[in-house]
User: What shape does this take?
Amino acid sequence: MFKKLLLMAICMPFILACAKAQTGTHSLGASVPMGLTNYGVRGSGYDAYYLAQFSYGYRKNLSETDNSSFSIGTITSAGAGIYSDGFGSGVVYRGDIQFWGDFNKGMGAVPEPAKNSGFHVGAGFGISYAGADGEAIDNDNGVSYGPMGRVGYRFGLYSNRKDVYKAFGVSLFYKYGLESSRWRTIGFHLLADL
Assistant: This one.
């Protein structure tokens, strides 16, 4: 019960702020996370997974200047890959949701930025579920949650009308799991704004 209340308390500011925020942006793309733990189900030493995921992102700017913004948002991903432990390997599937607060500068920060490139840096919280061959991949029933950090670069990729480019972003992220398995996940997002 405490975990559900904690999750609601973490998510509620994002939901409320999105309802009142200024500019919203949808993104589609891919994520490639890699996870590692030394607290696997069978005590085999290190367990690892490598995935390819389809991703959808949404962010809202809370405050904007001419060329920068502070935004909150979420990225939802699902996909499959390879899981390996000391006893063998198999297919793993994973779904996750990440909540972010970002500072954005340049491209992708505002609807019509002054520059064709930019960056973002942020912190957030992530929750994921992973299963391998029909079973959870750890003693936590495959659930991992914890704080996250990210940094990324955006550049103008294509135009939907003359002189207005849409952003394409590459972000590197890291999550430290707070569950007993302590999954450490590093990966990157490739997202194109719609």
Remarks:
- The mean pLDDT is 82.
